[in-house]
Structure formats: structure tokens, C-alpha cells
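Look over this record as teaching material.
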Amino acid sequence: MGQTKHTKLYDTMGVPTDVSAEDLKKAYRRKALQLHPDKRGNTPEAQEEFMAMKAAYDILSDPKQREIYDMMGEDGVKLVSQYGDLGPDELLMAMLGSLSASGPLGKCLIFSFVALFLGFFATIPLFFCLKVDNDVGWSWLTVFLPMWILDGIYLCCVGCSFFGDDADIHQEPEDRQSKPLRLLVKTLLLVKSLLFVACQIFVAMKLQHSIDWSMHAVLAPYYVLEGFYLFEKVVSGALAYASFVRASAADPASTSGVSKTSLILDILNSWTMSILRLAFALLIAFKLEDDLTCSWWLVFLPVWIYIVTLVVPHIQTYIRRRHRHQPGHDEEEPAPSFLGLLCVFIGIFCAMSPFFILAYRLQSGEFSSFYVLLPWLIMVGLVLAPWVLMVLLNLLSCCCVCLCGRGANDAEDPATTNHDTV
């Protein structure tokens, strides 16, 4: 492992950067005895120095925080501790809060990065639409160019992980995975990434008529990939259920917050997603090979089932909360809002509406394929509109400040010149 350039916390503890967990504990005990405020007059300076040493130990004794500190220093630890445990909605609010606290230049840079990121991803479906509508004469290999760029970055990251250091010296020996298990996990990750990229290559070659394979052969890497995911979820679900049963048998209070039914439903839900994706790919292959004579609406049946799985939990939650809010129940919960439930339905419909438009176009539509992407483009525009307005307002205020400052300086120059002359 390379020498870290962040050594402040190690210097505070008086240990080298490659200190083991056991030696770090010994150093902490030694420092705690030396710097304890009771032995140094209990002055504010002594308390501050002791707390700084304690904070350094708290970071270095945690394997994850120590790894982050070695890479990014204390600022990286603060950033991860602030945003790392937040949910997607909370993370978005925190990012917006940080954005509002930054200056005009910071807002402009952040918006430019977000716009560039979204714009690059938007080129993927846009290139497909241009090719499907015969608006460009590019080859399908060219249409897939943005995907090749993303695949290259993805494979580089996976390759670095595969050939990187196996052991983590920051972890306790009993917490480290065995070397064969680490090699197996890395190999599976590499195989899955290669299958993902191979499927894209086969699809591009099939569309380009470079190969005369059946759709099942073209999608074979995807079948295997989804098989891997399903197998992993089945194994992890079985292990989670066995762990729950053992924990509840040893100490029923330890699992009081989770019921067996909810755990089973969560496990089955994770399996369902993989099964639906695999079934959707199979139905598309059968339809394109003319082995199915049904409509495209039936081919999209896994998508409709997935939409139902998104809607039903919200309906169940609404009914349960409405029942608990009736007179005679002591649970203090906020009243269920039908408007909130309706907003959830509208959001799900807007997010999934391109699949309805796509099914209609494949079945009987002759309109431009850009209409398939129209709901997503509108949603992206609504998300970016406040950012654009905020950046423009900040740039305008910055220009006003600069112009006013320059005008004030110009007004002061003659007086200053006359004073210097005198």
C-alpha cells in the first residue's frame, strides 16, 4: 500500500501511517493517560487537545473512515459523514443546500457539471431515435459510441478493482474475507461486466447485419447476466431468512422491529425484479423472431406487472394509515392524504409513460420515435429549469456587483489623482 499524504491525524496519535489496529489501540491508551485533562489542570487547552486526540482515534480506528482519510483527508471524512448515510431525497436536499450556500462561480460550475453529465447520457437515446427515424446515415456502431465510452470507463474501474490490492490492512484479521473468496467475488464482478458489454456489442452487430444470429443468441450474455443476479438474490435471501430465524430463536426482542412476513415479502420482491427483467428480454426475443403472434402490449406484460408492484405498496400504506386514523385507534400518525397518493401515482405514470408510448408505436404507431422520449425530456427540463434560473440570477448579480464596483473605482480615481498631485 502506498504512503498516504495525509498524516495530521497519525501525527496527533504519534503513530506511523501503516500502524496496525492493535498498535493504534495501544497508542490511544498511552495518549489518553498523557493528555487526560484531570492530570493537566483541566484547562480549556488541555480539554481541546484531548478531544482532538480522541477525534483522531475515532477516525483512524474505523476502517472505512481511515480509508477515506488516507485518500481525501479530513475534508473527505466530513463530506462522507454529512452525505453518506442520507437517502436519495435527503441527499438531493443536502446538495441543494450546499449549492445555495456556494457563490455564483460555484453554482455555475456545479450546474455546468450536472448539465454536461445529463447531456452526455441524453445522447444515447437521442442517437437511437435519430437512427430509427432514418434522420442520419450513421452505422449502428457509431450510434452506440456513447455507450462504448461509458463501457470503457466501467471496464477500467472493474479492472482496477480486480488487479488491485486484495487485503485491507485497516480491517481486523477476523473481519477480512479469505483470499479465495475475494478472488471469487472479483472474478464474478469481472465476468458480469464483460457479459454486459458483450450483449451491447452483439446487439449493435445484429442491427448492423454483421452477424446472422438469432435474437436468443444475441441476448445470451444478458440471459446469463440476469441468471447471475437472480442466483445472488436467491442465495442472499436464503441467508437473510436463516439469519433472521436464528436471531429470533436466540433473542426474540432483537427482531421485534421486523416481522417474518415483511422479510419474506422483501426477499420475494427482490427476486421478482430479476425474473421480470429476464422474462421481458425473452418475450422481446421471441417476438422479434416471430415465434410469438401476440401484440406488443402483451410482450410488455412484465413492465405492466412492475408498474403494479410500484403502485400497490403505496395503496396498502394509504389504506393501513387510514384505518389506523379512524376513531378508536390510539396510534398517533398523520392523517393519510389522498392528494399525496395521487401525486405518487402521477409521478409513477410520468416516469413509466415512455413504455406505454413505445408499446403503442411498436404495435401500430407511425409517429417519430422522439415522442417516446418526450415525457422524460419534459421531466429533465423541469428539473433543470430552476437550476438554469438560479445560475442566471447569480451571474447577473455577479455582473452587477462587478460593474458597480468598477464604477465606484472610476469615480474615486480623479479625486485620488488630484490628491496625489497636490
